[in-house]
Design a protein that fits this description.
about 200 residues; alpha+beta; four-stranded antiparallel β-sheet
Length: about 200
């Protein structure tokens, strides 16, 4: 009985050792697999970053947009004297608007009959040219959107005004006509021509 019990105990111990050995092998294998899988985290070179399938387009910032200088010349000719001209310059970055005002402030004092005392000074009014410009590039050229307002005094108290708006294609270094107006305000019953030209120069 004792030997049988001892033999049975030996078998039980042997089975227990075998089961424990198998369990330990499984635990070690699972532990090794877990460590290997987790080992990617601290090593970026072994785990390439995940990239998105979508694409994004970076909009051009202020530092990427070109800059141009625009030299405007306003010429007026009423047929009674040499043409007069006024020049002014705008330096603009693409996508930004600029404005220039050239002119004078005049008095709208009514005329008085000969021999009458002078009339009291009337209100004053700004006359001249107001130009607003906005541009975008088109290859090597620029498309300039220009709004102009030109006004002049017709004594004693009338103001003549001409307004225009449009686009002009300008090649760098070459003058382009922005607006040209002919009216009947010239001297001696003639025509008066007012013309605005622009020359674009790329700075960046």
């Amino acid at each position: 009985m004792f030997r049988g019990s001892a033999r049975g105990t030996s078998v039980a111990v042997a089975l227990g050792m075998s089961i424990s050995s198998t369990t330990a092998s499984l635990v070690l294998a699972l532990s090794f697999f877990s460590v290997s899988a987790a080992g990617c985290a601290p090593k970026p070179e072994a785990c390439p970053p995940v990239t998105s399938a979508g694409t994004s387009q970076r909009l051009p910032g202020a530092a990427d947009r070109p800059i141009h200088r625009f030299d405007f010349v306003l010429t007026a000719n009423d047929g009674t004297a040499a043409p007069s001209s006024t020049a002014f310059t705008m330096t603009l970055q693409e996508g930004e608007k600029g404005e220039a005002v050239v002119g004078r402030n005049v008095s709208l004092t009514p005329a008085t009959p000969p021999g009458s005392p002078p009339a009291a000074p009337g209100p004053r009014q700004d006359v001249g040219a107001k130009v607003a410009a906005f541009y975008r590039t088109s290859g090597d050229d620029v498309v300039l959107e220009v709004s102009t307002e030109m006004s002049s005094l017709e004594p004693p108290t009338s103001i003549r005004k001409t307004v225009s708006k449009g686009n002009v294609l300008a090649s760098p270094g070459k003058p382009a006509v922005v607006a040209s107006v002919d009216d009947d305000a010239g001297g001696a019953g003639g025509k008066r021509r007012v013309q605005l030209t622009v020359t674009a120069t790329k700075l960046r």
